[in-house]
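Dear Dr. V.,

Thank you for agreeing to look over these. As mentioned in my earlier message, I'm a first-year student in the group and I'm still getting used to reading structure tokens, so any feedback on how I've presented them would be very welcome. I ran two proteins. I've put each sequence directly above its structure. The first is here:
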Amino acid sequence: MKKYRNSIFYITTIGGFSALMYWTILLGAKLEQGRNIAVHESGKSQWAEFIDALVHNLEHPLAILLAQIVTIILVARVFGWAARKIGQPTVIGEMIAGIVLGPSLIGLYFPEFSAALFPTQSLGNLQFLSQIGLILFMYVVGMELDLNVLRNKAQDAIVVSHASIIFPFTLGLGLAYFLYESFAPQNIQFSSFGLFIGIAMSITAFPVLARIVQERGIHKTRLGTIAITCAAADDITAWCLLAAVIAIVKAGSFTSSLYVILLAVGYVFLMIKVVRPFLKQVGDLHTSREHMSKPIVGIFFLTLIISSYITEVIGIHALFGAFMAGAIMPENVKFRNIFIEKVEDVAMVLLLPLFFVFTGLRTQIGLLNDIYLWKIAGAIILVAVTGKFLGSALAAKFVGQSWKDSLTLGALMNTRGLMELVVLNIGYDLGVLSPEIFAMMVIMALVTTFMTGPALDLINWIFKSRKEETPEEVGQPDKFKILISFGHPERGRSLLRLANSFIRKLNENVSVTALHLTASNELHHYNEAEYERESFAPLISEAQGLNQKITTLFKTSNDIDSDIAEVANNGDYDLLLIGVGQSIFEGSLLGKVLGFTTRIINPGKLLNTVTGKKDMIEDSPFDERTKMILSKTKVPVGILIDKGLHNTDNVFIPFLSQDDTFLIQYSQKFISNTGSQVTILDTAGQIKANPAINEIITVIGQATPNHISLLDEKVIDKEFLKQQSLMLISLESWKKLVVMKSQWLPNAPSTLILAEK
């Protein structure tokens, strides 16, 4: 009876109260008598009324906003992926996505769709949300600034940074003189127009520059340090100048703007001398996630909001307040990391793409419908590149840099990215920039950001100075070289134990390199050294326990699978060991329902389908990254399915094809170095029918008695599998077992799948 008690109670409670509610509604209906209650009679069928209600719901402002957000995020992700694939920062793809969704493309060719998705009355909501995203983004930019670097290494950087501002600013002001009469709005003074063109020409995108420096692997060099420091100094100077320019524009004259500037100076003094020490004290007491309570988080977010509010009221824009709030955050790296993680995902993934699209909706490239206007756009780009590139390069050369480093610094400082769009939108909102000039300046921002990568490649080619991707000691041809590439440190430990099993007794004739790549948009330049140290600490500890010397190699990447293959190929390794990933659709209902569409919606698959290229391993049961590594790598690859690998005492090899013969040489390595007991299962009778393979196994057995055995059993019991430490199998045989849905496969131990090249 006890097992039915809960069911009886549930049915009685729900049924009883439902009946009580129904009775109450019946009584309440009698109270309607004497009231003038309108009864809606449309004459339409119930289905028609349902459709009308559905259409009404679709046109509700909230529904439109949510549809806009979904569309924007999806399109931004696709274009961001495409940008990474061609070696460009993600921001380039997102900027282009904004223009594509705007009147320049979708609005031009699909006006009905554009009007339905982005009706004019909905743009206000989109703008406010995008401004919130920008405020959070500028908060992160402020936190990313390492003021200690500015204090310690700013001597040369300040010279280069300020030269990279004053030179393009002056050229921009001169350009404004020629543009003012034809392109400035009628009610705007020349000083306002000229100052805004000048500041737009002199801005540098600090976040994008920092990502490029990371991806190029120059962040630990003197040049990388100077570039980061210059960009940080440039950011602070440019935003102070922008605040002054906004004050002048809003006040209407320089004299009246002095009051605004004085208020801004007082605000900065208050933030640095009063608010910053208070926040530092709070940060020193709460340096870990455990101590980061909601009231503490509330203090810092309240500081951000109040700071933004004050600067907006003063007249120097809320974004300056957000930037300042981030810059005065406690300098403790762990503390800043926690806050950046809290803010960045929402700002960068959800809200910031809204800003790109809102900018795209404002950008009407169709206005440039005359060759003369395109010549003006070309002149703007030329002045922007000349001012920023040459200004930075010549200043760097003056302070003692080589021509290669000077030109590299010029190319980096010429990166404008998102920061340029922020400045342009402020100018557009203030009415300083006309739609034509706004469109031209957006094109300039795209071109100058896009050209950074190719310019750096050209400079490296001219000066014939290509940095090796692999450590020097790996390049020795007489060594057996293994590369292990890992994401999670614990998986890296298993891969290292496996690598050690291949080479334990080879002494100095081996080389093991541990490679860890991380996505460039997941890591900030100021905490890269700490992240690298934490990532490799478990492997270094494991290597010490194994008495195994390893070389560590760390870098940020825009395309992780391609970079893993490139490092493996360039280093001429004998074996690449990786861990297998898992598809996000694997084992889910969505994966079963959309199994065929996961190939279609994958951009790489779609590109291969369009270009007619067939994936070499289309049917291999791996995640996309593993498949891409296999297709691009020219050295043997071992894929570890780790189920808690601790040793290789007992190894078994399912032999399904004569092509599996190469596995025997790997079994020899296990036997020679760790004394493994190897069992070869001739499940298909392939070995029995091939005397040559039989002879090889016999020779190994004579050289190492009792370490290798041959079984021809077709059925493998669970007890046998429990005794094994590792299964060694070829890629083709693994695919066969998966297709056959072998019953013993789920009970297999850790598995090393080998793909011979």
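The second protein is here, in the same arrangement:
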Amino acid sequence: MIHRKTPRLARLLRHVGLAALCTALLAACGGGQDGTAAEPMASPVQAVLAPSACTPQAVAEGAAQQIDQRCVRASPLMRAHARPQALAAATPAAAATTLTPDQLMDWAERQYPHFFAPSAQPTQILAPYTYRYYPATGNYIGVAGTEVYVLGPLSQGQIALVGTLADFACVAANIGCAVPGAPTITAITPQDGAAYVEFAAPASSGSSAISQYSVSCASGFDSIRTATGPASPLVVTGLGNGRKYSCILTATNQQGTSAPSAAMTVTPVLPSSQPTTIRLVSDSGDYIGGGRTYLYNRTNTQIGFSASGNRISIQVNGDEWWYADFVLPASQPTWVPGTYTGLTRYPFHDAAKGGLDWGGEGRGCNTLKGSITVLAATYNGSTGELDSINFSFVQYCEGGSAALRGTIAWGANDTTGPPGPVVPVPTTLWKPTATLPASGNYAYLQSDSGDYIGQGQTTLYTGSQAPQLNFNGSSLTAYVGGYDGTFVAMQGTSPLKVGYYPDLSRYPFHNPFKGGLSWGGNGRGCNTLTGWFAIDEITIVDNQLQHVLLRFEQHCEGGTAALRGQIRWTKP
């Protein structure tokens, strides 16, 4: 409970003390109904309870509440408004409220007769307070400005702030009541006959805390399935494999249900054809993930997966490089749905509990705690090998509170691979504007001011200085003027084809499922780079390169200055 004393109250407390404050308040306002000073009476319903009364069940049911290490009588609504975290999470019902102090106090008498009795006590004023005193329980309730206070056995004899008029407006007088805002579906992972739905809470919870989320997935009017729960994620079951569903999400509080989220589609899959996907969400402050979100699948990342008994190992080689191990308790020889907690770092874990470890990019945990939740797993009936799996994990490094969370789906028969270069080549890409030779081999380099590799020079190499090429199916290397440049297609694309190869990084440290690029020489090279290349023409006969026309653009160290070039080569 928040305890706050106004300056006037603080002065009274210093000069007359807390014991005399009740008498001072009453004497200044004429006391009870007969005009005499009323002395606070012992509450017939004792507000302070034995510590043993604050059992988890009593607190959950609202019968008791822990305040300043004391156990006091409470109710769910008063407890919610008395707790600082509830006040901090609440969204005011309206910027201004017409709830009056008398409406509030009338409601409090009806809602909490064991605190404020007998009812219908006179409203009194002692600036800046408008208040009522209840002689049967010894409690006061008052309003100063827009803030609501209580005093007496209810608050352990302390002046306690329990909220504002706006906080109580909806429950006390149905003023400014609001349902939650629309939540947001952030990701849906297809499963065998199910959908694993992750979501974010709405910006506003409305006039009261959100009690439930509900996600519905529909395919026409004859197949609608729903799942409910208090928080993300939710798993919608009973869906048809291979059938496309549209899913929406709503949030509910005491005032009603929100507008639905934007829809997101999902197509559940048979276990053997389940696509392989990895999603990582790193909290701010998480050392491993650096506070970022990562998405991987077999179209953009090389994903290695191996399963042996109760252990799964994963390697990710893409724009980032990761390694991971997940081990269930020794008593669990296979992967079955369930949540496994109390895990520590593999391979130094307790075998009876299990372990995990996700690291890479030069970062790893010395110690960690975490959990694994297996959502679905299937095994091949004839070989006994794992056919598909869908699971999530949470990892905390070095005893911290920032987490790395991941969801992983894998299918043994997922044959997805890189899509190959983009065709046709986009017309917006750079092309040389200079007049170039109509025939013969050449390399044209155009370097921006500030480009480290080309030193801001524009050069045309022809004749005896024309480039020499080395072709190896999926890669091409050009040698010219003391430079060498390498152009590598995405893995699985061989030989090189006409098309646009975007989002490249430095060869040979590139993402193999995107391809790579590197141009350097004359004592200069990039540590890191971004770029692209495009093949406009290429002829290959019996695995031998006969002709090629390509363009490229390269930026070193994340800079804006570029080296651009075009190469034309025909076998002599």
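From my reading of the second output: The chain has four domains: 2-173, 184-266, 271-411, 442-570. Residues 1-47, 75-96 have pLDDT under 50 and may be disordered. Does that match how you would interpret it?

Kind regards,
E.
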